Amino acid sequence: MHTDTDYAGLTAREVAQRVSAGHTNAVRDPSSRSAAQILRANVFTVFNALLAAAVLVVLLVGSWRDAVFGLVLVINTATGTLAEIKAKRKLDSLAVLATPLAHVVRDGTEQDVPVADVVLDELLQLRSGDQVPADGFVLQSTGLEIDEAILTGESVTVTKQVGDRVMSGTTVMAGTALVQIDAVGAQAYAHRLAAEARKFTKVHSELQAATNRVLTWIGYVIVPMTLILLWSQLRLSDAASWQAALVLAVAGVVGMVPQGLVLLTSVNFAGASLALARKQVLVQELPAVEVLARVDMLCLDKTGTITSGGVQLEEIRPTAGCSAPDEARARAALVTLVSAGDANATATAVASALADVPALAASHTVPFSSARKWAALVAADSPHRAYVFGAPEIVLATTDNQAAEDGAAAAALRDVAQLSRQGSRVLVVASAGDAAPLQDAAPQLPTDLRPELLVVLSEEVRDDAAQTLSYFRDQGVAVKVISGDNPVTVAAIAAKVGLRDAAGRAPVGVDARTLPPADEAEGQALADALAQATVLGRVTPEQKRDFVRALQARGHTVAMTGDGVNDALALKNADLGIAMGNGAAATKAVARLVLLDGRFSSLPRVVAEGRRVMANMERVAALFLAKTTYAALLAVAVAVAGVAYPFLPRQLTIVGVLTIGLPAFILALAPARRRYRSGFLRRVLRLAVPAGLLIGTSVLAAYFWLSSRGVAEKELTTGTTLVLIGGGLILLAQTARPWVWWRVLLVAAMAAVALLCVLIPAWRAFFLLTWPSGATWLLCAACWLVLAGTLEVLRRRA
């Protein structure tokens, strides 16, 4: 596209000079961690430091065999780091597909370049839906309206005239403009505010919050517990055996640290993001995966979700009483109106049908906006004559003759209602003899509008929409369609794809203009009205946001999908904003998920992935925290009783690997479709703490019973180790339900490896174990039977 020669923009040489000087818009995205940052985050943790110190102590005063838990630590950390880096690389490569483009003028030609490639002094074309990539001032403006919420905190559009400044991070809501850039990169407004252009409230991760809370508790307890255990073991030793006492104290500390819990959380998020990336779903914030499992309310914008976004022009019909000359002039005005704005699907369909119709010259235009729902022009050859194109019930709402049964407006609205019930989308072209209200700073509709043309459009319904809506209905997720279009039309289309209201009936469209406001006094009334509505039409961008907040106030976890700039406010405020890959740049910027291929049918897979993460993390978190509980109980018990700690670090390492480490990683990757319920930490602790106490008590009972019989030290250690492994495997079997074949095989394989540890001589020697006597086997069996019964009762109550 060529532009006015007065605004030819920079030459290729001038662009290259600015790039060499570093005057570009490229700024490192702080939300994307580098590989080095991921490595540091996985390696340099408090518990890793504690365990590394423990490894060092054991290597200095004990056997290298007791430092084998350090190898497990290295393997776990490496696994987590590699998984996150792999996910990061995939997401980064996918993010390129979602990178917004800037429309710049170079060498007299408009070009699309990544926003990072915009340079100082660049000429920039702005259109509706664009997010301003850098600071500048307006050279030309055609009804440019900017949402400056990033500056003021209020989503109020501001009209920009020639000479006015536009700031990076703001959003174009209507109109077009040519802007010259005078601040880029770190000097631009949005970057000075730490990338406020993409700012949205961080996802609240119940999983991360619960994990951090537990780790804080453990952090408070583990230091005094370590000192108490160290004191008790040193008190039992003499000057010649203090090294052995130190190793036993280390064993107690190692047992209390939930080594893989944080690691598994980050690996799970990264793995889910990678799995979704393979399905063309870009996760822009990893904890958003968790929110997927909690969603119980899905709000859909009709366009791009239920419908494909494609529009077909069915007909342009004159209204009753419209003369042939008036029809011809209205068609010419329509050509101008659809050509002046953005080339959206509606404008393209109408312009194609009227390709042979000459445009009507205009002296003034008002661009379309989602808030107004109309566009207008003032004829150049008749300064008092105006034409308006938009939603019939809004454009004709102020006409003087609407109340009259024989009025043209009333007749047109009756035709619109009939067409809307058939699922058609109808727009009106109306004329007015008083153009003055349109030329005010805040344009208003004239009151003498007369309908001239009805523009009848149809939209293509997605083939997969019905199946996708059926999935959400079966999963207990309520669905609401929130659209800016006619509510009757939207309801008819929603009914075609099987959407039903709470009573199972075809939905009735509700006009959002009839709903109570969202202020504090009426907020409850709005929430009540939304509870009864399934399809809402004529919704403004601000109302979409208010609807999301009202649903959240009722305790719903809300996901919102959309593709247009009018959806950005709602997506930003939703618990989970989901943008379509072909959506507006501003919308994708605030979304937490982007469906790059724009497929509505991807959403069930997205929800299933979130549920898998949460359900499996709940399983494995119970295993980790049960281990911490019984390790703490053992440490306290031996300190109070004044006896030696019953395990060496190498023995606790094999216990952890067989009952938690390997099974946890395998279980965390398993499919799980159960809908997530809030209360993650409460449920985990209700199972983990009592289970840990029961297992610890069984180990202590076996320890003291074997000690009272005077068995050899290896027999004593072997018996208590087997009781501990058996208790851990029983808990593993309980949390691994339902028992499908591979889960049964997993538990059996871990039990078989434990048996080999006392069966193979070399393994026995390494772990300082022995083949138990018959009496010890009977004791172990008795402990396992008691644990199996009590843990089953506990699981059912939890």
Automatic annotation (TrEMBL):
PROSITE patterns: ATPASE_E1_E2 (PS00154)
Keywords annotated in UniProt: Membrane, Translocase, Transmembrane, Transmembrane helix
Location in or out of the cell: Cell membrane
Domain P-type ATPase A: 98-196
Chief location: membrane
SUPFAM superfamilies in the cross-refs: Calcium ATPase, transduction domain A (SSF81653), Calcium ATPase, transmembrane domain M (SSF81665), HAD-like (SSF56784), Metal cation-transporting ATPase, ATP-binding domain N (SSF81660)
Its membrane topology: Multi-pass membrane protein
Matches recorded under InterPro entries: ATPase_P-typ_cyto_dom_N, ATPase_P-typ_P_site, ATPase_P-typ_TM_dom_sf, ATPase_P-typ_transduc_dom_A_sf, ATPase_P-type_domA, HAD-like_sf, HAD_sf, P_typ_ATPase
Pfam family, one: E1-E2_ATPase
GO molecular function: ATP binding; ATP hydrolysis activity
Cross-referenced Gene3D superfamilies: Calcium-transporting ATPase, cytoplasmic domain N (3.40.1110.10), Calcium-transporting ATPase, cytoplasmic transduction domain A (2.70.150.10), Calcium-transporting ATPase, transmembrane domain (1.20.1110.10), HAD superfamily/HAD-like (3.40.50.1000)
GO cellular component, one term: plasma membrane
Record-annotated membrane-spanning stretches: 38-61, 67-85, 214-232, 244-270, 620-645, 651-672, 684-704, 716-733, 740-763, 775-794
Designated name of the protein: ATPase
